[in-house]
Amino acid sequence: MPVPDYQSLMAPTLNVLADGGEHSLAELREIVAGRLALTEEDLRAKIPSGTPLLANRLHWAVTYMYQAGLLSRPKRGVVRITDRGRKVAAAHPDRVDIRVLSEFPEFIDFKSRSHPPKQTGGAERTDEGSTPREAVSTAVDEANAAVAAEVLDRVRQREPAFLERLVLSVLTAMGYGGAAGRRSTWGRPVTRAWMA
Predict the structure, then answer these.
(1) Which end of the chain is more exposed for a tag (fewer CB within 10 A), N or C?
(2) Alpha-carbon span 12 to 14, nearest angstrom
(3) What are 183's strand-pairing partners?
């Protein structure tokens, strides 16, 4: 069996996560591959960048389900099913796809942020109605929106002092201030080690 597309990986992923535990993405890949009876040859398949095909497709399945609120990310590289995810898994045990995810406003909002209105220029179009350049641009916008949403969620989960350190570090990295020993308005040193 070849590696399924990312939408076909959504239901098996929810089924694995139905145990309610936290699973690393590596563990999730291994379990899903076993349940789908993927061969060693299937697991060696790579996309042009060199990333394993299963890892890439599972990443997108997880990202989309996270954006729809079916999964949570309690820490980096770890996912857990949500109550909404359990309901979707029960209602759609065999197939979860974009159509199902589109029932949730969070997912629609995510897709609208990553898909600006398309303009056509008469170039050759793909079967989904966009030119190859538009398809690549859409994929890049989608990836950027997914990363931005995850960063925002992570910042919101931290204490308020973290945001202060983050802003100061970003401003310093942009070239504003940053002299050694400099202090913030609140008397704390401005450092680049805000993530520690």
Answers:
(1) C
(2) 5
(3) 189
Of 6, 4, 48, residue with least CA distance to 146: 6
DSSP letter string, 64-83: HHHHTTSEEEEETTEEEE-H
**Predicted confidence (pLDDT) per residue in 1-44, tens digit:** 689 999 999 999 999 999 999 999 999 999 999 999 999 999 99
- Please report whether residue 125 resides in a domain: no
Instruction: State the pairing for strand pair 71-75/23-24.
Output: unpaired
- Token pair in block for residue 176: 């504003």
Q: State the residue for tokens 């949730």.
A: 104
- Categorise residue 181: left if φ over 0, alpha if ψ from -120 to 50, beta otherwise: left
**CATH code at position 95:** 1.10.10
- Enter the pTM of the model: 0.64
Q: Which two tokens stand for residue 3?
A: 């590696």
Per the structure, how many domains does the chain have?
A: 2
